Structure formats: structure tokens, C-alpha cells
């Protein structure tokens, strides 16, 4: 019974909201911009309003199944592990969606939802890091990488459980791996600047 929630997490995480929203307005975000189904590319291709809608939907993909698991499972008997694993699999679902032949987004928004549920304070600190990084560098990818990479550190300092810290490390590592192309472009000086996209 317990393991049904991580499965639900993966299935909900697999819903490609960026792709669906794009199709609703007659566009395929996989064929424009960075060709990614995440909120950043949706915002770049379809505008900030639809990008924000995608962001909210992608966040909810992890929050909803985690809330379900937390509210329906009895205390003890590995409840925390199941809830955290449900969030991790929602992020994995976003990155490797069943419905798009396992070609998904980079997991930032769904990871945001997961950690917003687990530790709003840690997410608040990471959002400040994200905003400052993007403002200083002009690159959303830099903000995403720094914010995600520091989440395990903030959680550890805030006294989160070992399970939560380990899960944060795993999710952060996955996010960094999914950003390998961005990292390559940054090193080559070819990454698209958010400032230039606004001009």
C-alpha cells in the first residue's frame, strides 16, 4: 500500500504540463527555444503568463502526491521515507516522463515544489540565491544550478532528517546532470542570457 504513493508521484510527475500548455495554444515547445518542456523555455517561447502557469503546475506535481502520502499514511513505519521518495519520483517523472518517451524537463520546478513542502525556509533561502545569481549573471541556468546545489546544505544546517538531506543531494545531482548541456554552453560562452531574451 505504501509504495503506491511513489508510483503516483512518478505518474503525476510525468505529466508534461509545458508540452500540454504549448499544444493548447498551437505550439510545440520541444521545437523552439531551448527545446525544453520546462517553465523557463515556455516563458521564453510563449510568454511569461504561460511560463508562470507551467511553473505552478510543475511545482504541484510533487506537492500533491506528497500531501496525499502524508495525509493518508499512518505515523511511523517508514512514513517519512515514503513521503520523501514520492517527491523524488515526481522529480524523476518530470525528467523522464512516461508520456513523452522519457524525454522531459530538468526538474527545477518540480524539485522546487518538493522542497517547498519539506522545508519552506530552505526554499526561501535558495530562491534568494536564485534571484541574486540570475540578476548578477544573466543566466537562469546559473541560478538554477546554484539554488539546487545548495539545497542539501541549507537543509543540513536547518536540522533536517538524514533522509531529507540525502534525497536533496540526489535531486540536486539529477538536476545538475540534466543541465549538462547548459554547463557546456556556459563554459563555451554560448549560453543564452535572460537579459538578451528580454531585449
Whole-number tally of structural domains: 1
Instruction: Tell me the series of helices and strands, N- to C-terminal.
Output: HHHHHHHHHHH
Structural class: mainly alpha
Tell me, rounded to a whole number, the average pLDDT. Answer: 91
Short description:
The chain has 199 residues and is mostly helical. It has helices at 4-13, 17-24, 39-46, 48-72, 79-95, 108-118, 120-137, 140-157, 162-178, 180-188, 194-198. It has one domain.
Name the descriptors.
single chain, 199 residues, mainly alpha, 11 helices, 73% helix, globular
Structural notes for this entry:
By secondary structure, the chain is an all-alpha fold. The protein has one domain (4-198). 73% of the residues lie in helices and 0% in strands. The chain contains 11 helices and no strands. The mean pLDDT is 91.
Task: Chart the SSEs and their pairings.
Blueprint: H1 4-13, H2 17-24, H3 39-46, H4 48-72, H5 79-95, H6 108-118, H7 120-137, H8 140-157, H9 162-178, H10 180-188, H11 194-198
Amino acid at each position: 500500500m505504501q509504495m503506491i504513493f511513489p508510483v503516483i508521484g512518478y505518474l503525476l510527475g510525468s505529466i508534461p504540463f509545458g508540452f500540454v500548455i504549448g499544444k493548447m495554444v498551437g505550439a510545440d515547445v520541444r521545437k523552439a527555444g531551448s527545446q525544453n518542456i520546462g517553465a523557463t523555455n515556455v516563458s521564453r517561447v510563449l510568454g511569461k503568463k504561460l511560463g508562470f502557469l507551467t511553473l505552478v503546475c510543475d511545482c504541484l506535481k510533487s506537492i500533491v502526491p506528497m500531501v496525499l502520502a502524508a495525509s493518508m499514511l499512518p505515523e511511523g513505519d517508514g512514513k517519512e521515507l515514503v513521503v520523501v521518495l514520492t517527491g523524488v519520483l515526481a522529480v524523476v517523472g518530470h525528467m523522464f516522463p512516461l508520456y513523452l518517451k522519457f524525454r522531459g524537463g530538468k526538474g527545477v520546478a518540480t524539485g522546487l515544489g518538493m522542497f517547498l513542502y519539506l522545508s519552506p525556509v530552505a526554499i526561501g533561502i535558495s530562491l534568494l540565491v536564485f534571484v541574486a545569481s540570475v540578476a548578477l549573471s544573466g543566466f537562469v541556468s546559473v541560478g538554477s544550478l546554484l539554488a539546487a546545489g545548495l539545497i542539501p546544505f541549507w537543509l543540513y544546517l536547518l536540522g533536517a532528517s538524514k533522509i531529507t538531506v540525502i534525497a536533496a543531494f540526489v535531486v540536486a545531482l539529477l538536476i545538475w546532470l540534466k543541465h549538462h548541456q547548459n554547463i557546456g554552453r556556459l563554459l563555451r560562452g554560448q549560453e543564452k542570457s535572460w537579459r538578451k531574451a528580454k531585449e
